[in-house]
Design a protein that fits this description.
about 280 residues; mainly alpha; two-stranded antiparallel sheet; about 5% strand
């Protein structure tokens, strides 16, 4: 037995996926503070998912404040509906304890801790979405958060390729979506050079624009290291000269998550890309 999510719940479930991908990006950082934020982010992702569940099943009583009580409330509601209990509770509570250590005790998580948080959270969300809503968590699309049709088309294609484990195609589509958005803004800011001699200026101007639009510098530079030199093609696709091959699942997952987040951030700062 499962339930059909209403529009508000659907929006919440997409938000959970966005929180999860943001935590994934932070987990890839070599910065210890970012790793702490990743652990906090994974825990927040699970908490938000549980609150979305409670909101879908309980219309009278608000979600409990304490995390343990929140889990019990969700479990009770599921049992009342004759549905499977909250999955992987021990693992979710372990992630929560690591979050408390990081946030309240200033304890730095180890690489194993961060990896465990990622795995436990991913598995928990996959089971919860399937058990409650019959939704494949991996197929929840963040492209719906993107307003511009062209950028959304590329990001959606990247998500589909990632699901199909076509990592090179996923990365190329993701980068195409990001550069599609960047180009719409850059065309209103500066004119690109037609000469080879001035293309280094274009690359520098592009990097400055990306940072000015709020893109995370560390992640942007990591993407550039993976892709090499990005060249625009006539159909808004891109080619990557110097792309690290074969494209790993980790690099593809990072590219899709970062480019999606970046396009959403760009639109939040400049508004409709169609107006440029």
């Amino acid at each position: 037995m499962s339930i059909t999510p209403d529009p508000i719940t659907c929006r919440k479930l997409v938000l959970v996926k966005l929180l999860y991908q943001n935590a994934l990006l932070q987990a890839t950082s070599q910065n210890m503070a970012q790793k702490m934020f990743a652990v906090i982010g994974f825990d927040l992702t699970s908490e938000t998912a549980v609150k979305a569940l409670i909101g879908a099943l309980e219309t009278q009583k608000p979600p409990e404040y304490k995390f343990g009580d929140l889990m019990k409330q969700a479990d009770s509601l599921l049992r009342e509906k004759g549905m499977p209990p909250v999955p992987d509770q021990a693992c979710v509570l372990h992630v929560h304890s690591l979050r408390n250590d990081a946030q309240h005790k200033g304890k730095y998580p180890s690489g194993t801790d961060v990896s465990d948080c990622r795995t436990y959270t991913r598995d928990f969300l996959a089971k919860l979405y399937q058990n409650v809503w019959s939704i494949d968590f991996e197929k929840v699309s963040l492209s719906d958060l993107i307003e511009n049709v062209g950028a959304r088309r590329f990001v959606h294609a990247a998500e589909s390729a990632l699901t199909d484990h076509d990592f090179e195609k996923a990365l190329i589509f993701a980068v195409s979506g990001l550069y599609y958005a960047l180009d719409r803004v850059s065309d209103a800011v500066y004119t690109r050079s037609d000469t080879v001699e001035l293309r280094s200026f274009d690359a520098a101007a592009e990097s400055v624009l990306a940072i000015a639009l709020g893109l995370n510098v560390e992640r942007y530079l990591r993407l550039r290291r993976i892709t090499g030199v990005v060249t625009r093609l006539a159909d808004d696709d891109v080619s990557c000269e110097g792309l690290i091959m074969p494209v790993s699942s980790e690099d593809a997952e990072f590219a899709v998550a970062f480019c999606t987040e970046a396009v959403v951030e760009i639109e939040s700062r400049v508004g409709a890309l169609d107006e440029f």
